[in-house]
Amino acid sequence: MKNTQKIFNALTMSVAIAALASAVTASAQTAEHKTLTLQGAEQAIAAARMEAQKEQAPGAVIAVVDDGGNLMALERIDGTFAAGANVSIGKARTAVMFKKPTRVFEELINSNGKGRTVMTALPDFTPLIGGIPIVIDGEIVGGVGVSGAASADQDEKLAIAGANALSASASPAVSYFDQSVVADGFAKGSVLLDGSSGRNYMVHTSRREKPGQAEIHTKDTDIIYVLDGSASVVTGGQSSDAKVTAPDELRGSSIQGGAERHITKGDVLVIPNGVPHQFTQVTNPVLYLAVKVR
């Protein structure tokens, strides 16, 4: 009986090891692959269309293909020429299949009359400016092609906007500021991150040496972390003589009916958007990190 059990255990272990080895081998033979979804294709179309409106580009056709060159989405803006759809699809496919912006091929063929014109004989090849690969985390998942705008450069600009809409949303850049940059920011008071590239937040290295005006940020919530110094801050109430000084920003001379707090090193103050606030007393200097969230 004991020998039978030992044999059974040995067989069980052998099967388990074989299964594990098979799984490892299968894992080594395959790799995860990112895929462009229909929602992603439509997002690229929307971004390119917005760029077309911004550039006042009439008649553009925007095409999005997957990593195999298969058409996923197409939009024709009113006023385009009949062949625009085929050309834009060709540009998108070329960008994907050759893994390069199509500008590379048009310039290569046209280079001072000495270009490789033989490339034009390649099948499914559209060497015209306006095709851009969509790259997510270093992997090409599709392409955007645009044709029919006012110029080739404008075609490309629209295609870049479409491709970047996916690249930016999938893999936002990490921002790093070493201690010398941060120290310099607090020495004079500056903006580390300004909310560009579609961010819904900003980061300020703030320095205040005297009281200021009453402030109202209609869209931005302030998250304040005090690093050094102290100050009295009035929040809430009503701002006197508030005037628009910039988009979504108002300034006034003082606040009536607000609550006063004394903040010092280590304190955190969160001021929701639309709430008046004012530094009324400052112990020189007060340094604080301000994160503005929109």
For the record, the CATH architecture of the largest domain stands as 2-Layer Sandwich
The CATH superfamily title of the largest domain: Haem-degrading domain
- The chain-level structural class is alpha+beta
The tally of beta strands, per DSSP, is 15
Total number of distinct structural domains: 2
Radius of gyration: 29 Å
CATH class of the largest domain: Alpha Beta
Q: Specify the biggest β-sheet.
A: 6 strands, antiparallel
Q: What share of residues is helical? A: 25-40%
Which geometry do the CA atoms define?
elongated
Tell me, rounded to a whole number, the average pLDDT: 85
Order of helices and strands: HHEEHHEEHHEEEEEEEEEEE
- Tally of helical runs: 6
CATH topology assignment of the largest domain:
Beta-Lactamase
Which residues sit in consecutive blocks of at least 5 with pLDDT less than 50? none
Describe this protein with a few key phrases:
single chain; 294 residues; alpha+beta; Beta-Lactamase; Jelly Rolls; 2 domains; 6-stranded antiparallel beta sheet; 4-stranded antiparallel beta sheet; 6 helices
Short synopsis of the structure:
This protein has 294 residues and is of the alpha+beta class.
Structure description:
The protein is an alpha+beta fold and 294 residues long. It folds into 2 domains: 38-170, Beta-Lactamase; 179-293, Jelly Rolls (Sandwich), CATH 2.60.120.10. Helices cover 33% and strands 34% of the residues. Strands 5, 6, 8, 13, 14 and 15 form a 6-stranded antiparallel β-sheet that branches. It has a 4-stranded antiparallel β-sheet with strand order 2-1-4-3. A hairpin with a 2-residue loop joins strand 3 (131-136) and strand 4 (139-147). The model has no long low-confidence stretch (mean pLDDT 85).
